[in-house]
Design brief:
Layout lengths: L2 E9 L2 E9 L3 H7 L4 E6 L4 E5 L8 E6 L6 E6 L1 H10 L4 H4 L5 H9 L3 H7 L6
Antiparallel strand pairs: 1-2, 2-4, 3-4, 5-6
Length: 126
């Protein structure tokens, strides 16, 4: 397993001590160190920055463009839930994001913003 020195990263005004872990070793690292969660990712270097100081804060911003109105939107999620549970383990959005409301979860599935969901599925919002 390839991990590097401890670094400092600031996210949303909070400073974290992090270790860098290459993507290929991330699941093994998390399983061996259950107190650690991903904080951020460098896709160019193929590295995740993990920390044991992360509480269950929604520190990862997931950006998307609505498939209907073409406007940019973002959702904040807990990094571990998005990367490990959703992308690697392929769990359902209900399992990964129990703290999100129905519209937020649907945005991750369909790529439609809440406003467009209300327009298209108006019968569900009566």
């Amino acid at each position: 397993m390839n991990t590097n020195e401890i670094l400092n990263i600031e996210r949303n005004g909070i400073k974290y001590h992090v270790k860098s872990v290459i993507f290929a070793d991330l699941e093994e690292f998390i399983n061996a160190h259950p107190g650690y969660r991903p904080l951020s990712f460098d896709y160019e270097k193929q590295v995740a920055y993990v920390s044991s100081e992360i509480d269950n804060h929604r520190t990862l911003q997931v950006d998307f463009t609505c498939r209907m109105c073409c406007k940019s939107h973002s959702l904040n999620v807990i990094p571990y839930d998005y990367v490990v549970m959703r992308k690697q383990e392929r769990k359902t959005v209900q399992e990964c994001f129990p703290y999100m409301n129905r519209e937020e979860r649907e945005s991750l599935i369909s790529g439609m913003c809440p406003d467009c969901q209300r327009k298209i599925f108006s019968a569900n919002y009566d």
